[in-house]
Amino acid sequence: MTRLSALLILAASSLTAQEFTTLKGHGGPIMGVAVSPSGQVATASFDNSVGLWSGRDPRWLEGHAAAVTVVGFTTQGIPVSGGDDFAVRLWGDHPRELGRHKGKVTALAPSPDGAVLASGSWDGAIHLWPLADGSAASLASPGAGVNALAYDGAGRLFAGTSNGALLRYDSPASTPFPLVKHGFGVNTLALGDGWVAYGAVDGGTRVVDAETGAQIADFTLDRRPILAMAYDAETARLAVGDGQGFIMVIDTVTWSITHDFRAAREGPVWALAFSPDGETIYAGGLDDVAYAWPVALLDAFAPGIEGQRSFLRDAGTMPNGERQFMRKCSICHALDDGPSRKAGPNLHGLFGRRAGTVRGYGYSPILQGSDIIWDERSVDALFHVGPDNFIPGSKMPMQVISGAQDRADLIAFLKTATQQDTQEGE
Ligand code: HEC
Q: Ligand 1: which residues within 6 Å by Cβ?
């Protein structure tokens, strides 16, 4: 299939993933997806089975007595799974049950040294199961149900809980260090170099320092809940899946949104995983199939697939100013006059306008009472120092555009694009 015909199919199917169905065969929704270091895909389904895929051909791993909720791979590439039957299972040549929780198993994380598999459950326990020799152990109580677990390279375990805490266990014997008290259940985690990204029930999508918990970036939109995250270190891509069926891709070098698209016709994105080269995103949800999204194909739409006028244009051929806008602003701001459902105020007629004055938009108090007038200089300053410094207290996300030329190009683009008269009928 050529890139163009793939694009046309995507466009014809109103940007849902139907045509990219690759992993077909499960008899129920898909709650978990994982990819082994060698690129093998595993899926966890309501149909009580784990699917282990060689290309598009499944092998079914049967053993759970209820829905399989989570799946993963050990560092040796052996599938592991947990389910609604409270069991944690190891597959491979000698399949066995590693042990049981007292509630639904929701999270699995293999330790980087390959010695143990950590499991978390709604029962509020985190257990460590030895993968070779040794006996099982339990961590100090996280104080609530566990929704997500991940190890960093140094063997520290991060946990997200149903009462909204992001915890860090520095060793199996330590009491957990509360990194973040988010307040709403933390559903999912992803770890990068010195940072932790988490997604929450209220739609909170944040990145914090792994040592201190200090906020690095905030990608919270008007979507909730956030259900799945995956990170690929090679391409520096962080994928975020939500309850409204969108997948957003974030560039973790610039902390900007590069892609955002509706991946499910209806229903949530429960599970995400990258292929080892970071070029394919696997996603699971209410459908009986797992989807494989080639990131290169999404580039043609990127970013701001939703309702953006030029979403079918290749980002590579856009003038720099427009590309800056599409990459960094379009996801939250409309340019055309008229109602907009985006998270930020409409930018139509921006230049010469007093800050905080789009009628019907719920600004934060600081912008509402502001005497800033938006012009070339103030918009430049906003992204030179970042909204968090320029208007402290604004709910606009932290974001800096460090290149002076990029800011100038963006402003030149905005000056025309925010003035276009949409009434013109010629
Ligand atoms: C993740 C969402 C998001 C992104 C991305 C984003 N903004 Fe915003 N923006 C907001 C929100 C929310 C507000 C309202 C802030 C408030 O009320 O405190 C806002 C406010 C503004 C304002 C003030 C508007 C007014 O009416 O006073 C300007 C100007 C602006 N953004 C420009 C931009 C530009 C240019 C970009 C890209 C470089 C951008 N924003 C990226 C969410 C975003």
A: 221, 328-329, 331-333, 343-345, 350, 355-356, 358, 363-364, 367, 374, 379, 383, 394-397
User: Which atom, in ligand 1's list, is nearest to the CA of 394?
Assistant: 18
Determine contact, residues 36/42, Cβ cutoff 8 Å.
Answer: yes
Q: Which two tokens stand for residue 390?
A: 């320029």
Three-state SS across 374-385?
CCHHHHHHHHHH
Cβ-contact 67, 106 below 8 angstroms:
no
Instruction: With CA atoms as reference, report the closest residue to 98 among 116, 124, 121.
Output: 116
Neighbour tally for 163: CB within 10 Å: 15
Q: Has residue 295 got a pLDDT over 80?
A: yes
CA distance 49 to 216: 39
Kindly report the protein residue whose alpha carbon is nearest to atom 27 of ligand 1: 355
**What are the structure tokens assigned to 230, written together?**
């995956």
Using DSSP bridges, classify how beta strands 87-90 and 79-83 pair: parallel, antiparallel or unpaired. antiparallel
Q: Which of 376, 396, 402 to mutate to test the pocket of ligand 1 (most atoms within 8 A of CB)?
A: 396
Kindly list the structural domains of the chain, giving each domain's residue range(s) and its CATH number in brackets, ordered by start.
Answer: 16-299 (2.130.10.10), 315-417 (1.10.760.10)
> In this structure, how many other beta carbons lie within 10 angstroms of the beta carbon of residue 312?
13
pLDDT digits (tens, 9 = 90+) for 125-179: 999 999 988 899 999 999 999 999 999 999 999 999 999 999 999 999 999 999 9
Written in H, E and C, the secondary structure of 25-43 is CCCCCEEEEEECCCCCEEE
Half-sphere exposure of 91 (CA within 13 A, CB side): 22
pTM: predicted TM-score of the whole model, two decimal places: 0.65
Confidence of residue 73 (pLDDT cuts 50, 70, 90): very high
- Which residue from 423, 339, 333, 421 is spatially nearest to 379, judged by alpha carbons? 333
- The CA-based angle 170-173-178, given to 5 degrees, is 45
CA dihedral 228, 232, 238, 241 (to 10 degrees): -20
| pLDDT average, residue stretch 264-271 | 82
Cα separation, 9 vs 17, whole angstroms: 10
pLDDT in tens, 97-128: 999 999 999 999 999 999 999 999 999 999 99
The pLDDT of residue 4: 39
For residue 326, the SS3 value is helix
Residue-level pLDDT at 341: 65
